[in-house]
Amino acid sequence: MNSAQAIMFLKNNQPFSKDTEERFEVIKKYNDVRVHFLNYPDPRCIPLFLNSFGEGNGYGVYQLIEDVLMKYSVEQVVPHLISALHSEHIGVRYWCSHIAASFPTPSLIPPLVHLLSDPDPDIRCAAITALSQIEDDRIISILVGVLEKEEDPDVIDLIQEALEESNIGAAVP
């Protein structure tokens, strides 16, 4: 496999369909593409990986995509990540909100705040986790505001935990 073939594979799978037995062979090739770009970085793969996530976990491959993205700078990844966080596809929003925690920059605050009203509580949790990684004075007030409206007990617990950690961090000189 060369980079052109790997790019074409990603372009043809935007995003993947939901995990099914029939898709297992395609996911194996997806993993081959992931390994290719780990060994031969090419920034053209960034937006393609970010928009490739289907519903499910890609048989364990989706969580490994972050390793490829970590080969690139924040400046290379974040503009594509911002776009992907607004995707209409739940799998893309879910996995990209997780990836956002590894690229903690204030420019991700608006799209992550938008995800705090996503109907999926797992996406809201991932957005809270990503926001809590960003060093910005606005984060505490954002989380306090969301806490007042949130109804899901797991999301509430995560917000409270993030607020407790941020208060401890703020108290340490």
TrEMBL record:
It comes from Paenibacillus tianmuensis. Pfam families: HEAT_2. This is HEAT repeat-containing protein. Coiled coil: none annotated. InterPro entries: ARM-like, ARM-type_fold, HEAT_type_2.
